[in-house]
Write a structure and sequence with these properties.
With about 425 residues, the protein is α+β, with helices and mostly antiparallel strands. Helices cover about 25% and strands about 25% of the residues.
Length: about 425
Amino acid sequence: MARLLRSLDDEVYVEYNSMGLDGTDLPTWGSPTEEIYHFNAAFRLESWDAEPEPADGLWTPVSSSTFVAESGVVAVLASMDGGGHDFLIGPPHFEYGVQMYLREPRPGDGHGTGECDETWLLRFWPIRDVFDPIAHAAPFSYIARGVLYYSIDLEPEQLVQPPSRREVPVPVSAVTDWASLRAEPDLDTFDGWLRQVHRRAEEEGVTVHAWLREKGLDIEDGADLTAATCTPPRMRPGRYADPLLDRYYAEQRHRNPLSGQDLDEDRLRERADADRIAKELCRAGTHTFSVPVEGRGGLYLRPGVSRRVWRWEDDYLGGELVDGGLTVDRQVLARNPWTRQILVSGIVTILRPDPGRAPCGDTVWYRVRDAEPHEAARVLCAEATWEEDPEHRRALDEVAKEKLIELRATYRSREG
């Protein structure tokens, strides 16, 4: 039987009756309601571990389709100014199914403003692992420095060509392998907390609403169990209309009275989404740590994606790890005898940008965890698939030198 893993209630302003899902290859869609152009829509996003049963009769089916997720994080896009909150549906490079439903809005939908014109339900579930190192892990094209400097388009022979054959089998994972597709009752998120509440209420033989009232929460029987309705008034400062932002701000203020006060709403939104998804990508008790990512592509790593990283570590006697991390396929690549440091590489899974370390130049710090076996298998497969042939690289270098000589001669003739 399919299980609901997590859900998110959101409200989005739709422009030109056009909605899309960021992080997917799905086409845009519009409301079937006649004469509706710009409007507020409530969305309920749900992640399931398998195809769920049809929604109850209050919902009208609109469509169902399949897509491939880029990182496993999606968001509703519906206006020029942005869209909805980020939502984790599962692992990257999986094929997913989605069912879309529509109904008339009800009190409490979206952000509870009462201004929604319609309410959507989007249910996601994983179908199969479709990771392909050629399609999903291609390296950057071969770049000749001089050609790049002169802003000349790369020639076909300078582009990365797919290998004629794979030397290693492509790993295929199961749904149960992934932390993002398992219900973790102790996870520090609202859905994890709600699962604990259901369990404790069942143990005491009372309803969830009755259990919450016993704990001092003013909630009526049958009320929707959302982050807003389940948050005590003292933890709801009422500063933001968006209950997800309001709850995150309240939690930060409760832990540290000065935390978050200087953040604008967009920045607070980024942190709230990143914090929630980072927790959902980890099993209970997972060790996390921070690593620098330098160079090309370092600014755009999405949560849930695994990759190899490099960093300098203090060379402790006895091989002690600097922070207990970077242990998967760990390789010591160089030693600096003067600073007593080692250059180490390992495979990690990206959780979020590290909010405590600002980017510096081309270096971005990310909060990560060691990759799990199925995640590391993808990285190792990609490395073996795209391993560069030394003879081919030397041939490309010769081609680049010849073209660079021609380019310089052309520019000198123009300057003369």
